[in-house]
Amino acid sequence: MRAKPHRKGDRKSYAGRLRLARVADRGKPALEAFVKASVEPGSTIVSDGWQGYDNLTTLGYKHQPTVISGDHEKMDAVLPMVHLVFSNLKTWLGGTHHGVSQQHLQAYLNEFVFRFNRRFYPMTAVNSVLGISVRVAGPTYQALYEGGWKHPYAPK
User: Fold this and answer.
1) pTM confidence score
2) DSSP-derived secondary structure for 27-40
3) Domains of the chain: which residue ranges?
4) 15-24 pLDDT, tens digit each
């Protein structure tokens, strides 16, 4: 989360860059693998008090855990953008796509992240899509639904 100057000189917070991935479970190995793949070592990670994040400091991250214990006010104070991001994701998946299967979930997460990270720069998104479409071959319908195609960013 970052502070952004607002019109009247006050500061308004907004979510920075987003990373999402489907993980096998919420245990330490899965969460640590996601953090290592997504976050620069030395970065500060603000999280709830979940035990799956306990080893982040030994992995080279500055970790600021706060035990939330179901306290919504504390959650909003410590992690203000979490509910916003996930409610937008659920609305987008349910409203636009009418739900998704586990098989294709990572592809939809990648699309959401792509749009979210370029929300302030719509022409950058258009240019990125055009560039990607020239460099990367998409899957065929048959490969998608018969299981022959594997998403290049699928969790291992």
Assistant:
1) 0.71
2) SHHHHHHHHHHHS-
3) 2-146
4) 778 999 999 9
